[in-house]
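yo

u said u wanted the structure for the complex thing, so here. seqs first:
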Amino acid sequence: MSENTTANKSKNFIYEIIDEDLKTNKWGGKVHTRFPPEPNGYLHIGHAKSICLNYGIARDYNGKFNLRFDDTNPEKEETEYVESIIEDVKWLGADFRNEVLFASDYFDQMYLWAVELIKKGKAYVCDLTADEIRATRGTLTEPGKESPYRNRSVEENLSLFERMKNGDFPDGAKTLRAKIDMASPNFNMRDPIMYRIVHAEHHRTGNKWCIYPTYDWAHGNEDSIEGITHSICTLEFENHRPLYDWFLDQLGVHHPQQIEFARLNLNYTVMSKRKLLQLVQEKYVDGWDDPRMPTISGFRRRGYTPEAIRNFAEIIGVAKRDALTDISLLEYAIRDDLNKYAQRAMAVLKPLKVVITNYLEGQVEELEAVNNPENPEAGKRLVPFSRELFIEQSDFVENPPKGFHRLVPGGEVRLRYAYIIKCEEVIKNANGEVVELHCSYDPETKSGTGTSNKKVKGTIHWVSAKHAIDAEVRLYDRLFTVENPAFEENWLQHINPNSLEVIRNAKLEPFLKNAKKGERFQFERNGYFCVDTKDSTEHKFVFNRTVTLKDSWKK
Ligand code: ATP
Ligand code: MG
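structre next:
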């Protein structure tokens, strides 16, 4: 692809490497990246960073981007995960030409290449158990011990390897190991395992194979077969790179360049798939797509947008050193995006009834409200106003602290898009709790057209009682109370007990009854919300709070 040109030199160090490669014509002008998930869990926001990076590079250089399942471990992998991953990658907007690739499709080629290494005297069948191999690996200061099986003849190795493949041996009885250097300062080079015997059914190849390649052996093969140019992975693979290079050099095949970058870690979040699986299995959350999960499916259900996640990936950038990213940056990106196009609405989460005593019974006015102050084209809508309304309980205080500008006994407040009202009487129940307010309104203060120039300090939202629709509203907060739960010994003890608050009788502006599943809104003063895609029905509306309007955790 000759039209590939320098994309954006300042973007990050990987772009600099690629720009240099294009200058020296290292790959004949090609740029080809991939995202290689193991289908053993749902994707999380860390994976999103990797997808945005790899896909972004392909897009910026007019190159190609592959979605490839690294499905080399039959015991933990499932089709459910494959399907969810495809959906998530598509949703994020990464274009893989609808070509879903599987490492398991390359098992035959990998086997042939392993045979080739045996023939070159570069691999051997070893009878040591996993424990024995570990015990003879040596230490940082001492070399490992060579396996007694290391010097088997090529013929014997070929025959044993074939028998491994044919299922002649039980799990763990033998491995195929690369013959490199037991004294290498890099542990990964001390005769690493290439194949294990595992009699397990694979989600795609069924029972065809009873030997499975290790990550280190398989990954470079996969990249090479697909013609990847830049194999981008996280930092923990940095000292696997010599092995990646060694395998491909021995085979003399297409040899992509591995480049490492720092993985994303988010505070107040756990990101390892093992921990996320535990949260799901032990029912700390309601499935992989629980809106509190840092999974892409959880974020989607919560109302996050792919644009916002991509912007977040841009903001945090790509580094060479691990760090902990503040989750408020992600929340900022979500707000910033939703603010641009979320339709505004009035919704009262914790209703307090207000009767406008001087407003005619049975009268209804349709008042104009702005749909989105950020976007004049979004236009206006009509909101019904009547004698009985709901306001937020928290917008009335009997004994207000200094500086409280909302409703107080005898005080005045403006109802958004409507009138100024005055609190005349406070009605309480037998327990002394405020259950209703009797107010008067001033007809001269109608928003926009009123003749009065009366001014009040506070404006509050409201809904008309008889027009309001009932909804369940779910308020989410961070799932953990500590910054770095993964570092805590008993990380499960740091789950935020208030990470979900369910409000069952919220009162919403009537037009919201036509909201579609997943549709997003700003409930004025309360945050951004979306219709829950799972639990919301025609008969029971369920809204999720996507994010608050301000960073509520900021000190
Ligand atoms: P875990 O260790 O939590 O199980 P993983 O990294 O092993 O996750 P994979 O399915 O192998 O999960 O990951 C697919 C790709 O996503 C890899 O290239 C990996 O480097 C990348 N990736 C995984 N986690 C992160 C992260 N937190 N930040 C950036 N990239 C990540
Ligand atoms: Mg992995």
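The first strand starts at residue 32 and ends at 35. The radius of gyration is 31 Å.
cya
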